[in-house]
Amino acid sequence: MGSSLSTEDERDGMLDVVGREAGFRVHRVDANSPGQAAGLQSIVDYIVVANGVRLDRDDGTFVNMIAESKDMPMRLCVFDTHTLRTRETVLTPSEAWGGKGLLGITIRFDVTQELSKHTLHVLDVFPDSPASAAGLDAYNDYILGVGDLLFDGPDEFFEIVLHNEKRPVRIYVYSVRTESVREVIITPDRSWGGDGCLGCGVAAGLFHAVPPRRDLHAVSPKQPHQPSLQRGAHPPGGQLREESISLAPAAEAPSLATEQAANAQAPSAAQVVETVAGQALG
What we know:
By secondary structure, the chain is α+β, with helices and mostly antiparallel strands. 16% of the residues lie in helices and 25% in strands.
């Protein structure tokens, strides 16, 4: 199974897509799952087309398609907010991969977000700190998301961190070394013996943006053209506003719209998201 990247011209056209178009943002990707086999990456990837159908609203279409495609390949178009490219990949829902659900991923329907608005560059990591224990890599790691939520700048990030002091928190980190996103569990604690509750410096802004992928120069504009996003209206009402939502700890963090909803008795993805929003805001 492989995937194809979009052309450089298409990438330039994607600048107008961010913040306007919607899709299913990928969050947790379980090891050895169909989602991992399809190359899906947490936080940066949005599933925008499935089997030729544009997923521009959370009306249950995608959930139903997953259930109906059990053990059959689905062709997905994925928009990457890091590279600002689309790529096509194949995802095969299955119960035989050894975990829960048909895909082994959690997703959230949302407007595409500009990566720089929810990115923090990890600076110095101090010995014997929570950041060190979690394996954060100084100057090579970028924090992209916390639990099932994005954050808006360092102030909101630290508000979330302080809210979960001494409780394990799941964060998503992009590594410049591996050029991939990994899941990290960190336990904020102001009593670790140094300053702060994480024991690492973080920074945001133009000089701390996630750098371009090293392999992009190898992409040929002669590759087959892949489905692109078309500009359109914002998604329908019910969209979550994450700016003021406090994070549940990693051990208790609720899954959002998951592929596990793709069965006859399960609620729609919209119902799952609304339920979780109520719990988080309550």
